[in-house]
Amino acid sequence: xxxxxxxxxxxxxxxxxxxxxxxxxxxxxxxxVGNPAVKRSFRxxxxxxxxxxxxxxxxDDLLAGWNREAKRQNKTVTIYNSxxxxxxxxxxxxxxxxxxxxxxxxxxxxxxxxxxxxxKANERLTLATDHGSRFAAxxxxxxxxxxxxxxxxxxxxxxxxxxxxxxRGFPAFNKYIELMPLLEQxxxxxxxxxxxxxxxxxxxxxxxxxxxxxxxxxxxxxxxxVRPCSLDWVLKIRNACKAAMVPLFIxxxxxxxxxxGGIKRKPLCPGGRDLDEFPSFAxxxxxxxxxxxxxxxxxNPTDKRWVSVKHDGGRLIEVLRKTK
Length: 324
Fold this sequence. Notes:
There is one protein chain. The protein has about 325 residues and is α/β, with parallel strands linked by helices. The protein has one domain (about 10-320). The protein contains seven helices and 16 strands. Strands 1-4-5-6-7-10-12 form a seven-stranded parallel beta sheet. A three-stranded mixed beta sheet has the order 11-13-14. Strands 2-3 form a two-stranded antiparallel ribbon. A hairpin with a 3-residue loop joins strand 13 (about 255-260) and strand 14. Helix 3 crosses helix 4. The longest helix is centred in the N-terminal third of the chain and has 14 residues, at about 60-75.
């Protein structure tokens, strides 16, 4: 698998629609609001948030091309909704149905569905089922799409305590958590170490712990307005992931970083994306194995980049180590 471009945990940004409601502390300084092309689609936390912009259907052709490329070259292309929320309950049903249709018709793409509305995910899929989506019906019946990773975005301990157990119970092969922007110290040990990995009768993983953690600081604003990210918080999360054998990808450390000893500094690289200026524990960029669909005939047995690590519960994960 070719790693994502430097500073990003995904390969391609793609949105079925643009816009969402800012509902959490991490949304206060959302990077998307700083983009003039999409700013009008984002409303204040307490404002009217019903406005969404449907992306031109001509862009759906891009997905078909990426899907053919991924199949032909046997490479992974990860798709991430950077300017929308897939389970936003205020999105028109036909927009959501169109997204499910695109996921179903691109089995060689790996979809990273990030959301702050994980507690509404079942409700949205049920609504799609009521509107005739067999894809959503199969998903809810315990046959989630193999090329989809579902993740919840959290910035505080309260959000982790509230939403991570919902994510664990959601039907998905793979689950991840985005700690972006990281605004305070977060304790993840209990959730990882006490997460059994359960399989259904047909050997399809439905309920289990988190497969991946993505971490990042706040950026996109002048450094004097950015809420800082502490390296002590990063170290605690790194240690929790290491103990639970869960891959960790540090996307960036934000525009303001608190070093050990309480010293606050502005990173040399905008947004703190160049991790080389930070301690070794803060330079962790591990990727899980995005291997669906698993076609044995297309695997390269000589590729030594992948390292299989056995989880204490019997689960196997594969981590892509940085190679020259």
